[in-house]
Amino acid sequence: MSTISETPTSSAVDLGCRYSLEVEADGSSLLAVELGWVALEAQHFTVYVSAGTECRTSKAHGAGIPRDQHADKDVALALDRIEQGDAAAEEPLLAAATARDRASLWHVLARAGSPERREAIYRRLVALGAHAAKRLDGIRAGDKGALESWGRELGLVPPSTKL
Questions:
Q1: DSSP assignment, residue 157?
Q2: Which stretch of DSSP H or E encloses residue 33?
Q3: Do residues 109 and 41 both lie within one domain?
Q4: Are 61 and 98 in contact (CB under 8 A)?
Q5: What is the pLDDT of residue 162?
Q6: What is the pTM of this model?
Q7: Alpha-carbon 150 to chain mean position
Q8: Count of H helices and E strands in the chain?
Q9: Of 9-23, 52-66, 131-145, which range is least confident?
């Protein structure tokens, strides 16, 4: 049975893990996963946070984008901007991202607003070592099933989950 931790901005569902969850006075939170996976559910988004990554939530923006706990400053800044709704920050993210940022890129891909943006993020993931998706047309179209299946194949989504 999964344990659920409720905060003012999210629900953290323990998928077999060890994590810390800090809640600020304004209701925002920071989840850091040490071992395993946590599904962080907030404002109609579920994000999967794995060992070595962290994710913030806020009342204004819900669940953020999981990131490596030691993410490069430029990657962290770009992710902060994307969480605030600045799609222009995708370009600096793609330029600065490394293989350890694949989970962040996959979550940005899942939220991207156009087939062109999804294609650019997909191509960067492949350049960083991700294998090609079996359903590339589904990825371009933003099909949740195709995204989830590819994320699971890449180890960026835990087994037996639904977006």
A1: S
A2: strand 29-42
A3: no
A4: no
A5: 56
A6: 0.89
A7: 14
A8: 6, 7
A9: 9-23
